[in-house]
Write a structure and sequence with these properties.
This protein is an alpha/beta fold and about 200 residues long. The chain has seven helices and seven strands. A seven-stranded mixed β-sheet has the order 3-2-1-4-5-7-6. β6 and β7 form a beta hairpin. The longest helix has 14 residues.
Length: about 200
């Protein structure tokens, strides 16, 4: 796994051993960032279910202003900090929060912290036919704190398995989606006035 573009391009990042982390494939990552284009430059980034921090580090490499990574596992957060060093970025550009994503979202929304890009590629859910998804991706879409975390004009990029059919709450408008193998990356923005109306 490597950084695909920007000033730290081709730096190879560490991945924890085992099946606990499923890094976003480089081809998928490249497609996402090609779609984002200049939107990354100067952006304040929040990465949820950060794992190795690859998406945040890709953002910093491509000119993002700062990143906050939320990762529940102490071990994975340790690898994330090592990857920050490998990529050559100063620790002041990236904050690591070792906690549950939904607890972090609630705290950040109350702060209030606002982000231009929110990236999340959580562990995949099961195939769901004839029932509403219970996956982490669906729980994230349903979380009323998520739209409150976006700055005006901000964007959420959410990864999930194609077999996991998500229900899109009214608050969200899908701009586009990218498909690669079993992976989907969806580009979402709040509908006009939706973030303000979320309790």
């Amino acid at each position: 796994m490597r950084i695909t573009g920007g000033k730290a391009a081709r730096r190879i990042l560490r991945v924890p051993k085992g099946l606990d982390v499923r890094p976003t494939p480089d081809l998928v990552k490249q497609a996402v960032f090609n779609s984002l284009g200049t939107r990354v430059a100067g952006a304040r980034v929040l990465e949820l279910f950060a794992g190795t921090g690859a998406l945040s580090l890709e953002c910093l490499s491509r000119g993002a202003k700062s990143a906050v990574c939320v990762e529940k596992s102490q071990r994975h957060a340790g690898v994330l900090r090592q990857n920050l060093q490998i990529a050559g970025f100063s620790p002041e550009h990236l904050q690591v929060r070792v906690q549950d994503v939904f607890a972090a979202a609630m705290q950040l929304a109350a702060a209030p912290a606002r982000f231009d890009l929110i990236l999340a590629d959580p562990p995949y859910g099961e195939k769901n036919v004839g029932r509403r998804s219970t996956s982490l991706a669906q729980q994230l879409l349903d979380d009323t704190n998520l739209p409150r975390l976006l700055a005006p004009g901000g964007l959420v990029i959410l990864g999930h398995s194609k077999r996991d059919t998500l229900s899109l709450p009214e608050v969200w408008h899908e701009i586009k989606s990218l498909k690669h193998g079993d992976s989907m990356m969806r580009f979402l923005e709040p509908r006009a006035g939706a973030a303000a109306s979320v309790p």
